[in-house]
Design goal:
Length: 306
Amino acid sequence: MNFSSREFYGGRIKAMKSRIPSEENESCLELNIVENAQVDLDSTRNMAEVEEIMKKIHDIILKDKENGNKKPTSIGVVSPFRGQVELIKKAVYQVLTGEIIRKHDIEVGTAHTFQGDERDVMLLSLTIAPNSHHQSIMFAQKPNLFNVAITRARKKLIAYISRPVESLPAGLIRNYLEYIREVNNSKTLDCRVGSLAPPRNDSSPIKEEISKLIGEEGIKVFPDFEIAGFTVDFVISDGFNYMAVMLNGFETEENNDNLIKSIEKQEILERCGWKVARLNAREWHYSKKACINKLREMLIQLSTSL
């Protein structure tokens, strides 16, 4: 999203839905260089990339099964070339059962297919190899379609190309692949799964207490989590579901906003797809255990509502 905002919108676009927090701080961008690959005569099919993409789809499905994910990871595969799309579709339907395809909501298509649509993980098959025609590279980086292709992932985008980035001509594709490398090689959190705000020197004792006690009950706690341009007091997780928690009535800087602003903030979060829980100071001081149990029940309800 940061690359798209910078490249196409002059930095004016801000992501409204932060990446899901992760203790591993896993990157939401990945680049794979496929070696010893060639394209066909019309430069629109690359079998080596198809094979690598099928391996990745298998890995995602297997990881879901091993982790016992209650909500399967949805998967999309996008390529600028219809020939490559047809090759990947054929492989998907030959290797995977209809049940698996439906379970993971697997879709394969060009950027046109995914306009207005998203998947948890998107695999981008650029199809470009050492023997690709220059015209096919120019076609693959048409600005509008390229922008759609790289902004369809909710959680992670994995790009495939079959030649060294340094050998590409100047343009969108090279810029984007260099951006992926830059993000993954630097310490920036601009495109990391988990947009945690920097630790505050003035963190309040009550926030530290809440975080500690919730964590002791086996619930993962991510304090000061950035969503939609502002900081939420906590994001909590049971390992499957995530929920935003806003404090009410506590003597913290975050809660000096008036009630109207607080309600507006909650409405924005809910439009971004977040479940929001309110933690009231009076209830917390009366029974901390009851408040934590209530939060746990709300997380459980998210699973039953899927």
